[in-house]
Sequence to fold (373 residues):
Amino acid sequence: MSHAPNHHPPATTIDPANPQVLRLAGRWTLRFANEVGDALRDLPDGIACIDARDVERLDTLGVLQLLRYADRRSLAFDRFHFRDEHKALIAAIEDVHDQRPKRKRDTGFKAALGRLGFAVVDNAREIVALVAFLGETLVKLLRLFKEPRRFRLTATFHHMEQVGLDAAPLVALLSFMVGAVIAFLGAMVLKDFGATIFVVELVSAAFLREFGVLLTAILLAGRTASAFTAQIGMMVNREEVDAIRVLGLDPVDLLVIPRVLALLAMLPLLTFIAMMAGLLGGMAVGAFTLDIPVPAYLARMQEMMEFRHFMVGMVKAPVFAMVIALIGCLEGLQVEGTAQSLGERTTSSVVQAISMVIVIDAMAALWFMEMDV
Fold:
C-alpha cells in the first residue's frame, strides 16, 4: 500500500544566534499560497537577511511573494540566500516582477528645470538628426542623375496623387473661407476711416505673400507628414524596411525620395490654388457685402499688386515641402517596432512639421522685410 508524500507547508523561524536572520523552510509553492501569504505577513520588523536554503520546493508564486516582501521592507534582494537549483528561476522572475506603481510626478522647480533641460537636449538631437537626414537625402537625390534607374516613377506619381490631387479640394475650401474672413475683419476696421477699398490690398498681399503658402504647408504638415510617418512606421513594425535592406536595396531610394519629390512638385501647385481661392474669397465678400464690384476689385488688385508679392509666397513652397517630407519620413524610420512608438512618432512628426513651417515662415518674413522685398 502506497503512502501519500509528506508535504511540508512553508515555515519561518528566527535564527537564535542572529535575530536579524530569518530562515525559511518547507514548500513555497502555489499549493500553499495562503500559508505563504500568512507566513510573510506576520514577520517581525528588523529582518536584514533571509536564508532560504532549507526550502524544499520553490515555484513562481513563492519567488514573487518573496520579491514583494523585499520591496515592502526595502530589503535588497541580494540579502536572500537560495539553493543553487533555485537561482535560475529566481533570476528569470526578478527581471519582470517589478509591478510597483510609478512615482508621482515631481512638480518642484528643480524637477521642472530638469525636464526643460532634457527637452532641450532631445530637441537638439532631433535637429541634428534632421540635418543629417537632409544631407543624406540630397546626396541620393543627386545620385539619381548618375544612376537614373534608381528613380521610382510609379511610386512618385502615386504619392503625387495622394499628396496633391486628394488635398486640392480641402486646400481650396479652407483658403476661400480664410480669405473671406480676412476681408470681413479688414472691412470692420477700415470702414471707420472710409477706406473700405483697401480691403483689396489687404487680402491680396496677405494671401500672395503669407497665407496661401502658410495655410497649405500647415494643412499638409498635419495631413501628409502624419501619413508618411504612419506608412513608413508600419513598414518598420512589419520588418519590411529590414527586408528591403536584406535585398540590397536602399530604403531612402524606395521610401523617402518618391515622397520628397511628390511633395516638392505638388506643394507649389497647391499653394497657387490656395492663393487663387483666397483671392476669390476676398472678392466674394467685396462684391456681396462691401459693394465693390468684381471689375473694380480686379482693376484695383491689378493696379496695386506687384508680381514680387506672388514670388515671395511661391519661393517658400519648396522649402516647406522639403521640411515636411523629411520630418515625416525621418520620424517613420525612427519607429521602434511597437504601436506606442508609432503613435508617438506620428504625433511628433505633425508637431515638428507645423512648428518648423511657422518658424521658417516667420524668419523669412523678417528677412524679406529687412531686404525690402
Q: What stands out?
A: The chain is about 70% helix and 5% strand.
